[in-house]
Write a structure and sequence with these properties.
Oligomer: single chain
Protein name: UPF0045 protein
Largest sheet: 4 strands, antiparallel
Strand content: 25-35%
Number of helices: 3
Organism: Streptomyces chryseus
Family: Belongs to the UPF0045 family.
Order of helices and strands: EHEEHEH
Shape: globular
Radius of gyration: 15 Å
Length: 97
C-alpha cells in the first residue's frame, strides 16, 4: 500500500517547516520507501507498518504543537510492490508515447 499524508501543526504560527521536518524525520528513519514533495509525504509498505509510521509522525508534531491536522490518502492494492516508482514510470511512458 501507498499512503500519501500531510501533517500540519496548528497554533504555532505561519512558519511550520521545523515541525514538518520532525514528521519527515520519522518517515526517513522508518526504512520504508518514501518520497516527500511540497505538499505530501508518501510512504509504501504493509498496512500496519505504514500506519505505525504515520502515527509516529503525527506524534512527533503533536509533541510540540497544541493541535495537529492530518490529511491522508491511501492506495490499497495487495500484491503490488515498488508502486512509488512503477506508478510514475507508467505515467511517464504514456507521456512519451
Amino acid at each position: 500500500m501507498i499512503v500519501a499524508f500531510s501533517v500540519t501543526p496548528l497554533g504555532v504560527g505561519e512558519d511550520v517547516g521545523e515541525y514538518v521536518a520532525d514528521a519527515v524525520r520519522v518517515v526517513r528513519e522508518s526504512g520504508l520507501p518514501h518520497r516527500t514533495d511540497a505538499m505530501f509525504t508518501s510512504v509504501e509498505g504493509e498496512w500496519d507498518e505504514v500506519m505505525d509510521v504515520v502515527k509516529r509522525a503525527v506524534a512527533a508534531v503533536e509533541a510540540r504543537a497544541p493541535r495537529v491536522s492530518l490529511v491522508l490518502k491511501a492506495d490499497i492494492r495487495p500484491g503490488v510492490t515498488d508502486g512509488l516508482t512503477s506508478k510514475v514510470e507508467t505515467v511517464e511512458r504514456h507521456l512519451s508515447a
